[in-house]
Sulfotransferase family protein (Cycloclasticus pugetii), 234 residues
Amino acid sequence: MSLINKLVWKLFSLKEREYLLSTLKAHEQGGIKKILNNRATFPEAFDDRKIILIEVPKAASSSLAAALYDGKRYGHLPLKYYETLSSQPLSIYFKIAFVRNPWARALSAYNYLRQGGAGKRDQKWAKLMNSFESFDHFVSTWLNEDNIYKQIHFVPQRKFLEDTLGMVNLDYIGRYENLEEGFNELKESLGLVVDLPKIKMGSSIDYKEIYTKHTREKVGYLYKQDIDEFGYEF
């Protein structure tokens, strides 16, 4: 991004900047914002550990980042963002991510935002989620191929894992459903002496009880890439 572009960016008001960013897909906004605000740096912790964790939303990424990087988090930024920033080929790093059952993740994201999300920045999303009578109403009315890219927690997981060529090129992809087992496997293979913080698992209700035939099929259609790529079933 050229200096001229960054200077032009500064000429816009905060609301104008927010509007321009909103025209991008949600998983692209964070990286572009950092670049335009001159805050885009390759994390030192990645170099220290030689590990890159891609923080997939609603897949225990906060706890994973806290364990790997001494409590630091770098946000839900896609692999291609780091690929662009790194002065070294990403092949020298061990690249990892954890993914989640797409049906369970969609319900978790809905409930998370409905309950307030990350606070002030998610107020409008909390208001929107609470405007629907139920999860079924939300899926039937709002969730579609365009809207899933407007909120980062609904963006397909594969989009976070793609490199600049659109390929998934990670060294390890674990599952949220087997989080502790997968993390212990990583610890052993990488020689890590770290502990995974206690995970807040949310509602104990089985997601399958919430879905109807219609919502199951619609979510399955919208997240088909994730389902196929990561081998999930309802």
Summary: The chain has a mean pLDDT of 93.
